[in-house]
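Please fill in the sequence for the structure shown.

STRUCTURE ENCODING:
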């Protein structure tokens, strides 16, 4: 019989690398990697295991603060109360001209409402209100009655329409009255008296928060959040929008609120100005609108 033929594979895999990664929970976040080298010649295999240690780039965990200080907790509690929709300043009855914009077709859906509010916030009344809040807060902190009086006078004069004047002064008066009745504190009454006239809403918030020792930065962010939330609430009733779309608009505006707050905190009074002409016209034309749900 002829000798059997031994068939050899056409291609003999000489070396193959198999990587096995094993992540272990260790104090210094170390990852163990084992490299297994397999050498295959015909039917013979030799396996070599080489353990290696490599550190990962994962950052260390952030220290968890389990509690707020007494001062921080009080500040947070008061800001959440004063700038909540439940605080009775009547914000729900004003739309800042959004009602006319909806009737005119400028605002039709969530996207157009989002764009309208982004402009109002960054380039219009939102930014200006933030600047007035910041300067009123600082003047109250330094007990500078003269500066506070000038700020209050300028803020009242800069409102572009009669209805917006009613909106901001009515809310400012209600905010001051309720704050004094339920949240009175030393030094608040002299600062209010120093203004010598009606206080617009952002100036009122700045004076009260400063008198209570609440820092300016969180007050600014809370105020702008409340302002945008009220605008969205008006738009949701007018367009109308569902709750999910309203929350999408609020989420999209988060970086705009943060950027506007940052600008307002560092702006001088000479930086005041508005470029939202269509929104100003809307607040002017709302007065003669045939049917109205809102006071502005």
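FILLED IN BY: designer on duty
SEQUENCE:
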């Amino acid at each position: 019989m002829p000798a059997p033929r031994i068939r050899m594979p056409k291609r003999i895999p000489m070396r193959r690398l198999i990587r096995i990664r094993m992540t272990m929970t260790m104090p210094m976040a170390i990852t163990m990697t084992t490299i297994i080298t397999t050498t295959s010649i015909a039917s013979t295999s030799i396996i070599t295991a080489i353990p290696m240690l490599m550190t990962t780039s994962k950052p260390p965990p952030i220290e968890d603060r389990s509690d707020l200080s007494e001062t921080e907790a009080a500040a947070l509690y008061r800001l959440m109360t004063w700038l909540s929709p439940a605080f009775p300043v009547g914000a729900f009855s004003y739309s800042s001209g959004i009602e006319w914009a909806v009737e005119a077709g400028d605002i039709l859906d969530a996207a157009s409402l989002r764009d309208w509010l982004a402009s109002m916030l960054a380039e219009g009344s939102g930014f200006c209100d933030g600047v007035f809040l910041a300067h009123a807060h600082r003047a109250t902190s330094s007990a500078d009655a003269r500066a506070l009086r000038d700020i209050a006078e300028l803020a009242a004069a800069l409102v572009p329409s009669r209805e917006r004047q009613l909106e901001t002064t009515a809310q400012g008066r209600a905010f001051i009255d309720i704050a004094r009745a339920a949240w009175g504190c030393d030094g608040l009454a002299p600062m209010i008296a120093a203004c010598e006239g009606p206080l617009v809403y952002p100036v009122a918030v700045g004076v009260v928060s400063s008198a209570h020792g609440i820092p300016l930065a969180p007050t600014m962010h809370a105020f702008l959040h409340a302002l945008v939330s009220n605008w969205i609430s008006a738009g949701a009733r007018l367009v109308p929008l569902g709750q999910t779309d309203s929350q999408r608009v609020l989420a999209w505006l988060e970086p705009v609120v943060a950027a506007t707050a940052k600008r307002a905190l560092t702006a001088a009074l000479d930086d005041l100005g508005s470029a939202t002409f269509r929104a100003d016209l809307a607040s002017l034309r709302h007065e003669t609108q045939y049917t109205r749900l809102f006071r502005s």
